[in-house]
Amino acid sequence: MNTCKRFPEAERFFDGIEVRNSDISEHVSNCPECGAYVARLDAIRSAVAGGLAKGEIADGQFNAFMSGVRGRIETDPKSQRSFWAASSLVAASLLMAVSAFVIISGGAPEAQARTEVQFVETDLEGATTSVTYSEQGSATVWLNVPDGEMW
Amino acid sequence: MNSVAFLLVFFHAVSGADDVVSIEVAAIKATQEGRDEKFFDGKAAAYRAQLKDLDFDTFVVVKSSKGSGSFGKEASFVIDDRHTLYLTPVDKQDDGRIKVKTRVEMKSSRPNQPPKNALNTMMVVVPGEHQRFVLGGPDEGSLVILAKLD
Question: Which residue from A46, A60, A150, B55 puts its CA 20 to 30 A from B36's CA?
């Protein structure tokens, strides 16, 4: 971190912006911090300038070049749209499947218990009662009577 | 020792009028004869689907009857000299089911003793479905009621 007070001036000096104080150049030369900073900026600028390759498109390559440009322009939005469309479709299908399952599963158990036995009783001493249901929901009421009592 | 059982098949049938219930009742005697295959006599064969799972191998219709009844009124059906079936259609539920009270009265084997309710139930049944009441002892047999509303 540059602590010199004239650091902002040094930046403007490097950028070629005219500064009021004309001795900024001398200051950069004499100030270790500003000098080092400007040197780093200069090195970065030089490296960038040297790394950029100036590409030239020959006449024979122009059509292919434009075709590639158009293809990229036309493909990217579609691919994005198709992705979101597919995702939405999957989500909607999943939601519908879950809803259908809930509705169906919620309905089946009630159908199996449509017959309702509200009470069962007997006046016979020693007799016992019970109730069973078939898979279709019909009921069987059982009365177990001690031998000699039924007939 | 053969087990003797009376199987009473009881059918409810609902007519078009809301205050009248059509009733169909059948009594079937079911016994354990030691057969290799279950036997249903001519009339009992019509109730094979409702009887085949019971632990008897011989089914014979004792009595059957058809009639009608009104909501709130008790209708009777004599099974034999000791057993009489009474049923009372109570009302019709909002979902179409019929609430019905079913009672099987049995005369005492002892003299001068009043009859008793061998079974007294209240059920809400679906038209078209058979419901069963099985009354019996371990060796003497059972009285089974099939209730169906058509």
Answer: A150
Joined tokens for residue A6: 């004239």
Within 8 A of B123 by CB-CB distance, chain A residues are: 115-118, 139, 141
The pLDDT tens digits for A57-74 are 667 777 777 777 777 766
Nearest to B120 among A116, A121, A147 (CB): A121
- The residue whose two tokens read 């019905």 is B100
Cα B119 from Cα A73, distance rounded (Å): 85
In DSSP terms, B148 is beta-bridged to B130
Give the global pTM: 0.57
To the nearest whole Å, the CA of A97 is away from the closest chain B CA by 29
Which stretches of chain B are assigned E, i.e. beta strand?
3-14, 20-32, 39-40, 58-70, 75-78, 83-92, 98-106, 116-125, 130-137, 141-148
The string of pLDDT tens digits covering residues A116-140 is 999 999 998 889 999 998 887 888 8
Rounded CA gap, B128 and A21, in Å?
A: 107
- Complex ipTM tops 0.85: no
Take residue A60 and report the two structure tokens written for it: 């024979």
Residues from chain A contacting residue B119 (CB–CB below 8 Å): 120-122, 129, 141, 143
CA A137 to chain CA centroid, Å, is: 47
| CB of A112 less than 8 A from some CB of B | no
